[in-house]
Amino acid sequence: MTDQIFAYITHKNGVADDSALELSVAAGKINADAAVTAIVAGAGDSLSAVCDEMAKAYPTVWKLDNDALAYPNAEVIRNVLASILPDNAMVLVPHDTFGMDLSPGLSVKMNAAFISDVVDVEGLSDNTLTIVRQEYGGQVSTHVAADISSGAVINVRPGVFQPDDIAAVSGEVVDKSDDIEITDAKRRFLETVEAEVGDVDITKSDVLVSVGRGIEDEDNLEIAFDLAKAMGADVSCSRPIVDAKWMEKSRQVGTSGQTVKPKVYLAAGISGSFQHLGGLKGNPFIIAINKNTKAPIFQVADVGIEADILDFLPELTEAIEEL
Amino acid sequence: MEILVCVTRVPDTAENEIEVNSDGTDIGRDDLVYSVNEWDNYAVEEAIQIRDRVGGSVTVVTVGDDESEEILRREMAMGADSGILLADGAFDGSDGLGIARILKAEVDKGNYDLILTGAQSEGGTAEVGGMLAALLDLPFASLVNQIEIVDEKKIKVGREIEGGNIEVSEIDLPCVLSVQTGINEPRYVGIRGIRKVASLDIPTHGAADLGVDPATVGADGARVKRMDYFIPDLGEGAEMLEGDTEEIISKLIELLKAKGGLK
């Protein structure tokens, strides 16, 4: 079973995603002795560059080159993987928008266990893999035990398994392109529509006042804009604010929104889901204000304040204006 | 268009702080407020809007227990035409695949063109929709935030991918889609609306009605099992500013000045 671990490499324009090396770290935590094979699917010249890059971290790299794989259509890749992976294999996939699309169905096709959004690996004993994952938006964690006797598809949370000291290897790139089966897709990729550009480019902001569900009502947004004005900051937000149509998508921080790199990030009434934190780069100074002290944002913030933002923000604004 | 929407009843995280119970076997369930899973609510709204545009019907289904009936009625008050409760002691402790198998059995009894689920629920596994599609051998798309009905044979969907971009694909019907929040603005349901549907019959289907082998579902059929709940020790976390509001604000202003947070 577990001697065969595979890592599905996400890549774009000839460059592997950060998750590519993280999967190698996660695989090592599952079974340090396993020989891990990277699977790189795509089409054309840029694919070779990704394969060569991966051969520095993985002992074996499977190259799957086919025009039908030029765009990563989860349905096509699911069928390809199901046709090429050996019985009882374990395959690691990043838990991003592609992995969420691909993996649950892949586990069914492989008759393998599906383990979603893994944040830590506890250990492997016989056919039982024990991992850690989170529930309720990160408010609680759980140990999960999976029977992997007939294989497993394991979705790994991006950004968790940091590849600090991966030993360099000179891996072998094996061209498996002739072994794969391309089937007619019932789902056909048409185009990618780029996100609309908004009135404010929060990716350029040094200081962000960011509001979440704690703002409670659209009318209350004013207190965030007032504070931002007093601070000389811009206003951004978390997903629920955009879902409620209170602010433009272009102001949303997170993996499904903008990636920002401010110096100071004031998170007001934001719980701090991993998707939100995924959009926060460059190690900003994070101030979290929330009335729920168990909110995950307090685990990553530098400074925390237990308060209702509806009361606190106006008082802070007033104090800054008086400076 | 015949549409089935799979929904689930969950503790409402907007209304509750989720804590671990004393022996770590579960979350604290006392005084929890439950509601329909937020993602599912968007899926039901989308189904209702599609039906209102092109005709057909919307059925909501849940795997649960007697208490789950309340969320079916809530979604029927929104405008779903009928509800089905899938309940059986044999279903208890099902993993995601078990839930998908139970739902598949119900789908097989009907004649649906479009099957919707929420993109994820409280556990965050985001797995049931994709598993259900694979069990049914139907095409699937996750994180859907746009649906356009092209004709009786196919639809166009947008998926929310990284960076706020939208991946647009064409999918043959029937298909399974998992719906992302923000796709629409779910309508409000008042007490009065729920009263109106209070007397409507909601059939309950168990393992025998569905022809589900009890060994393949429930705790016995689960390959993936939650062992406990715990709060991880993540180090120190944030330095909490203490004192009265005035003191906190003056400390915060000093920090903002030092870190370049004031201009």
The fold-level CATH name of the largest domain in chain A is Rossmann fold
Radius of gyration of chain B: 22 Å
Task: Please state the second-level CATH architecture of chain B.
Answer: 3-Layer(aba) Sandwich
Terminal CA distance of chain A: 66 Å
CATH architecture of the largest domain in chain A: 3-Layer(aba) Sandwich
Strand content of chain B: 15-25%
Strand order of the largest sheet of chain B: 9-8-7-10-6-1-4-5-11
Biggest interface and residues each:
A-B, 96 and 81 residues
> How much helix is in the residues of chain A?
25-40%
Oligomer description: heterodimer
For CATH, the homologous superfamily of chain B is named as HUPs
The helix-strand sequence of chain A is EEEHEHEHEHEEEEEEEEHEHEHEHEH
Main pleated-sheet profile of chain A: 7 strands, parallel
Going across the biggest sheet of chain A, name each strand in turn.
7-11-6-1-4-5-12
- Flag low-confidence runs of chain A: none
The average pLDDT value of chain B, as a whole number, equals 95
Give the overall form of chain B.
Answer: globular
The residue fraction in helices of chain B comes out at 25-40%
Overview of the molecule:
The complex is a heterodimer of chains A (323) and B (263). Chain A has helices at residues 19-30, 45-54, 74-84, 97-110, 221-231, 239-243, 274-277, 297-300, 309-321; strands at 4-8, 11-12, 15-16, 35-42, 60-65, 90-94, 113-118, 120-125, 128-135, 140-147, 152-156, 172-175, 187-193, 207-211, 234-237, 264-268, 285-290, 303-306. By secondary structure, chain A is an alpha/beta fold. In chain A, the strands form 4 sheets. Chain A has a 7-stranded parallel beta sheet with strand order 7-11-6-1-4-5-12, with helices on both faces. Chain A is 26% helix and 30% strand. Chain A has 2 domains: 4-179, 3-Layer(aba) Sandwich (Rossmann fold), CATH 3.40.50; 202-321, Rossmann fold (3-Layer(aba) Sandwich). Chain A has 9 helices and 18 strands. Chain B has one domain: HUPs (Rossmann fold), CATH 3.40.50. Chain B contains 8 helices and 13 strands. Chain B is an alpha/beta fold and 263 residues long. Chain B has helices at residues 38-54, 69-78, 96-109, 128-136, 191-196, 207-210, 218-221, 245-259; strands spanning 2-6, 9-11, 34-36, 57-63, 82-86, 114-118, 140-149, 154-160, 166-172, 175-179, 204-205, 224-226, 239-240. The mean pLDDT of chain B is 95. In chain B, strands 9-8-7-10-6-1-4-5-11 form a 9-stranded mixed beta sheet, with helices on both faces. At the A-B interface, helix 4, strand 7, strand 9, strand 10 and strand 13 of A face helix 3, helix 4, strand 7, strand 8 and strand 9 of B. Strand 18 of chain A pairs parallel with strand 13 of chain B.
